[in-house]
Each structure stands twice: as C-alpha cells, then as structure tokens.
Design a protein that fits this description.
By secondary structure, this protein is α+β, with helices and mostly antiparallel strands. It has one domain. The protein is globular.
C-alpha cells in the first residue's frame, strides 16, 4: 500500500517565490500599509473584471498555484484581450497528486482569495521570472471588491489615500471627496476613473501624485 506523504514548498522555496514577486518573506504575513500611490507605482497590470474561472494545481516543479481568469470589463493597464489569466501562489485546498502524495500548499495568511462571479479591481505585480506566478500588489490591498457601486479592499481601504500628495487641480470634485476618506468603501466609478486617468497621464512618473515622506 502506497504511503501518502505531505508535499509542500519549503521556507527557502517560498522565500524565493516571494522575492520573485518583489516581496520579502515577512511581507507574506505582515504587509506594510499600501496607498493608492503604492498600488499604481508597483503594478504591472491593472484591470477591473468579473472572475470567470478559479482552478488550482501544482506545476511540474512542485509549486502550488491558484489560476484565476477574469472577464475584463476595464483593461486599464497591461491587460490585452477580453480575458486575463494569472496564477497566484497557493492552493484553495489540499489535493492528492497523481503519485499519491498530498499537496498542502495553501496560501499564506493575508493573500487574497477568489470566487467565480465576483467583480474586482485588481493591481498586479509583474509575473515572477522563474515561476510565472503573479499576485496583487500588497496582497489584500491590491484587490478591491466591487459591489453595490462601491470598492473595498481587504483592509477596509484603511490608509489608501492617507499621506498622499496630489495635484488637486487634476482631480474631479468626486475624486477630491474620495481623497478625504480615511477608510471604508469608496465609489467604484470614481476610483476607476481616477486610476484610468492617473495611468494614462503618467501621474506617478511626472510627480503629480506621490507619497508624503514616511
């Protein structure tokens, strides 16, 4: 009778994966607060869409992943085509491999979860060079669920607009009100419009918006 063994990515392997995503191992469980400037500045891909499919698996190198496919509503940056698919580290739940081993590579605490049918605005890091894995900037900070006309991330939007310098002459009246929020949901259309214009106008690169000195 074949003996089942646990199969997981070791700490060294996880550290390498995180570094490939531009993160340190400590950020897997303790993420520093992210502002809208951080989300814009670190994103390789930004889109709004509906989660069409969620599947998980283990790649040939033994790395567990969750694959998320979006039906794109708003391809703000780096998203081409009607659908966008990426793979995030970790499984939805343990699974038995074809050789009888049990893969237990769940997501570390604080990493976003995904559900078919949900609508979200996501800010994604560049894909890791070695694994192709990709996740949201600042983990729970970079996934904003959209529902009821509002946008909210995994940290109640706390600090999203705090300590941010912005050229207020560029903002609409609704955006100015949004920047006064310290936490809680914000109007989804206002946020999406702001993000689109900030990306198209290269506001980060031009210094039109920046973090105040920390």
């Amino acid at each position: 009778m074949r003996r089942h063994t646990k199969h997981r990515v070791g700490l060294a392997g996880l550290a390498a994966l995180l570094l490939g995503l531009g993160m340190t191992p400590s950020q897997a469980t303790t993420v520093r607060p992210m502002t809208i400037v951080d989300l814009l500045g670190h994103s390789h891909t930004i889109l709004a869409g509906t989660v069409e499919r969620v599947a998980d698996g283990v790649d040939p190198n033994g790395v567990p992943y969750t694959e998320v496919t979006f039906k794109v509503i708003d391809p703000i940056k780096g998203a081409a085509g009607a659908r966008h698919t990426f793979r995030q580290f970790g499984l939805n739940e343990p699974r038995t491999l074809s050789d009888g081993r049990v893969a237990t590579g769940g997501r570390p605490e604080g990493w976003p979860t995904w559900h078919e049918g949900e609508v979200a605005l996501v800010f994604l890091y560049r894909k890791a060079r070695l694994t192709g894995l990709q996740t949201t900037v600042g983990l729970g900070y970079g996934k904003l669920s959209l529902g009821g006309g509002m946008a909210l991330n995994g940290y109640d939007n706390a600090g999203l607009f705090q300590g941010v310098r912005v050229n207020r002459t560029l903002l609409t009246s609704n955006e100015k009100s949004m920047f006064e929020k310290r936490k809680g949901p914000v109007d989804a259309e206002t946020l999406r419009g702001f993000v689109r214009r900030a990306v198209a106008g290269q506001w980060i690169q031009k210094g039109s918006i920046a973090n105040a000195k920390r």
